[in-house]
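Lab notebook, bench 4. Still working through the backlog of constructs that have no structural model yet. Next entry is a single chain of 166 residues. Request: give me the C-alpha cells for it.
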Amino acid sequence: MCWASATLTASGGTSYIWSTAATTAGISVTPTGTTTYTVTVTNTNGCTDTEVTTITVNPLPATPTITITNNVCPSTIGTISATGCGAGTLEWATNAGGPWSTTVPTYTTSVFTVYARCVENGCIGATANATTAPIMCVSNDCSKIFLYTGMKILRDFCNNKAIELG
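Model written out:
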C-alpha cells in the first residue's frame, strides 16, 4: 500500500470489536506506516474468534531530477536524462497524463516538455518535468556564397564587397 486508505472487513459474526475501537464489520483505515489491526468476532452462539492483519505502507518513491543538455551549434544533438529513482523504475512521458514508458524521449530540434516519475513497490512518486530549449543553428559559412558577374568580378555577400579577379 502506498499512503492510501484501505477497507478491512470481517464476517461471520453478530458483533465485532476492532483494535481501533470500531464495532462494525468493516472499517476504513489510513495508516501512515506499517500497522497491525486486530478484530474479535462473536457469533450468535457466543463463540469468539480473533484475527490479525498487518498493512504494510511503502514510502512513496523519490521525485527524479531531469537533466536536459541542449544542443550546441552547429550540432542539433541534445540529451535528456534523469537520476534519483534508486532501486525504482524510471518512467518517461511527453504528456503529463502519459502514456508512460521506460524509454527516454528522443531530443529533437522542436521545443517540448518531458515528464519523469519513479515507480517502486507498486507506488508512483511525484512527477518531475523539464522543457527542452533547442538552439536553431544558422550556417555562417560565407566562404561559398558568391555571385559571379562575368569572369572578373565576384560578390562576397558576407562581407558586402566586390572582389576583382585578375
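Notes after review: The chain is about 0% helix and 40% strand. The chain has a mean pLDDT of 86. Flag for follow-up if needed.
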